[in-house]
Amino acid sequence: MAVTKRRATRAKGDTAAALGADLGLSTADLIEMYRLVALARAVDERMWILNRAGRIPFVISGQGHEGAQVGIAWALEKGKDWIAPFYRSIATCLTFGMSARDILTAQYATANDPSSGGRQMPGHYGSHEHNLVSVSSPVATQLLHAVGIALAAKIRKTGQVAMTSMGEGSSNQGDVHEGLNFAAIHKLPFILVVENNGYAISVPAAMQVSVADVADRASGYGIPGVVVDGADVLACYRAARDAVARARAGDGPTLIEAKVTRLTAHSSDDQQTKYRSAEELASERGHDALPRFREQLRKAGVLTDEIEANLNAAIKGTVDEATEYAEAQPDPDPSGATRYVYADSAGPDGPGAGEDG
Amino acid sequence: MPPRTFIDAIRETLADEMRRDPTVIVLGEDVGKKGGVFLATDGLWAEFGGERVIDTPLSESMIVGTSIGAAVNGLRPVCEIQFADFIFPAFNQIVSEAARMRYRSNNGYGVPMTIRAPYGGGVHGALYHSQSVEAFFTHVPGLKVVVPSTPHDARGLLRSSIRDPDPVLFFEHKKMYRSVRGDVPDTDYTVPLGKAAITHPGTQVTVVAYGLMAHYALEAADRVADDGISAEVVDLRTLRPLDTETVLDSVRKTGKCLIVYEDNRFGGYGAEVAAIIAEEAFDYLDGPVTRVAGPEVPGVPYNHVLEEWFMVNPEKIADGIRTLAAY
């Protein structure tokens, strides 16, 4: 639980724990955050290998977004708060409780893929168990779902916060305007995270957004708009922590724009060298949270050679095991393909009228 | 209980359900203090307060999308689209999101939500306050579509819709709000979704209709009775899931079927009914399956002469029955 983890546990004079102490993050928190960033990257890289090897037909990636996703999701309370993620939210989903197996079974679209039972394309994650709303392909629709979840939280007085994330291209959809306006009017416990990686498939942000920062739009709704360096995990955590505190206090929504980078093509069906120069792609590597967070933690003495070696071995083991597991899982049986169009009348949801006859 | 108007039945059912179940909320444009432009939610705001009866901004996609989220987090929203004509900004939320949520999450999430919308012409509403939009939504697996025609059914079907675990579109013909009255039992009865009703037994021609047209079909059945024609009227009540058995049983008995709908004919809901009859009851047919429906123009024109020209009425239906009976 992020909230309990946040308690500082450092001893006086412990330089290792000094990093993050002002944020209430313990050494163990920092190591776990780093593990999640690195695990998300390792899972993602494995997905591309499997795609290029012909094992899975499609990949949509979160590489370059992981630091912001972990930093922000860490501020929410697992098992209580809600996230309506998007198709690059691998690190978000891992931070909120999904496993490497859960992500990899989605790539293989297995019968037991917890996101959709093999019904959706990879990248469309979701888990009722972990309060992660099922992802669809039309972009930004999920913002309204998170706003509705926040509305229900307010009416039911649950104390929950609802967060959604999307790219800067998606932020142009009308649903974003409609939802921010409503959430701001009612001061709902809602957070919009725009992970701005500079591209909507091939179209650069300057052709997508009329202002330099999507966060500037927040002022039109009378809510705070915060720009944060998406490669700075702890800055992302700080921004999200403040937004969560605002939301829980009844002060309403916050728009957080994390400036991230897209280290891969849009998807496995895209060739980004057609619209991005080699120089640009090389320089974008410098905006990667993974090596930056690693350096930060090493300098602070949080990551030692030994800890890192153990982490790397554990992550490799986790990804290998999850790959092997997912590879071995059966495909869904077509005999079940007509189930769950509606609630089964015999199912746990009660008296559904069943499917059309 | 004295006879209730159609809109009384809607309003009283909403209030009853909100009293019964604290998770039921109502949201939409002008539904609060004003009680809705037709007064379908009149009194709810005073009784349940602004937290459960929410006046929304003019943002139909938000009304539906937010209701989806609220449903995911434990509420049973009943949202109102002020006129069915204005539902299209919410089409993506209804079709891409609400309808698909359960299927795409492999039963991880359901969306227990009811979308109410006044529809239909004959009230000087012109192109954008008269539309019948049911065919756009009956096409979509994952949605349920209900069109009641009497206060009794409106009450029983609205209860079932609100209590249903899946998204329901509940279309109310606005011309019926105050012109249709009927007895409504003072009990907690429900009318199940997916069950049609035979409202006028007959032997020679089956007339399938719903909403306002179910009333006009009854009038037409009375008119042709004077000509010695026995028509059986089937009021579908729910369009999806369709009660195919009741329709087919009637057609197998009469051998002839006329389908009536107010929407323009081409690709309308009646086309699906006709196709099912052709596939399932071909051997029983003594004539073509025919339709009386609206003309192929993109909306109901305003001028009263033009509106009368557009609207299906009892005489047009009676003519359709006579033609088919003579076949």
CATH class of chain A: Alpha Beta
What is the quaternary state of this protein? heterodimer
Count of individual domains of chain B:
2
| Content of β-strand of chain A | 5-15%
The CATH architecture name of chain A reads: 3-Layer(aba) Sandwich
Question: N- to C-terminal separation of chain B?
Answer: 46 Å
Shape of chain B: globular
What percentage of residues of chain B falls in helices of 4 or more residues? 25-40%
Biggest interface, chains and residue tallies = A-B, 59 and 53 residues
CATH superfamily of chain A: Thiamin diphosphate (ThDP)-binding fold, Pyr/PP domains
- Backbone CA Rg of chain A: 20 Å
Description:
The complex is a heterodimer of chains A (357) and B (327). With 357 residues, chain A is α/β, with parallel strands linked by helices. Chain A has one domain: Rossmann fold. Chain A has twelve helices and seven strands. Chain A has helices spanning 2-5, 15-18, 27-52, 66-73, 90-95, 100-108, 141-156, 174-185, 233-248, 278-284, 289-299, 305-328, and strands spanning 82-84, 162-167, 190-196, 199-200, 203-204, 225-229, 254-259. The radius of gyration of chain A is 20 Å and the shape is globular. The model of chain A is unreliable at 1-14 and 346-357 (pLDDT under 50). Chain B has two domains: 4-182, Rossmann fold (3-Layer(aba) Sandwich), CATH 3.40.50; 197-325, Rossmann fold (3-Layer(aba) Sandwich), CATH 3.40.50. Chain B contains 13 helices and 14 strands. Chain B has helices spanning 6-20, 44-48, 60-72, 91-98, 101-104, 134-138, 151-163, 176-179, 212-225, 244-254, 269-280, 304-310, 314-325; strands spanning 4-5, 24-28, 53-55, 76-80, 114-119, 144-146, 168-173, 181-182, 197-200, 205-209, 231-235, 238-240, 257-264, 290-294. Chain B is α/β, with parallel strands linked by helices. In chain B, the strands form three sheets. In chain B, strands 3-2-4-5-7-6-12 form a seven-stranded mixed β-sheet, with helices on both faces. Chain B is globular and about 60 Å long. At the A-B interface, helix 7 and helix 8 of A face helix 3, helix 4 and helix 5 of B.
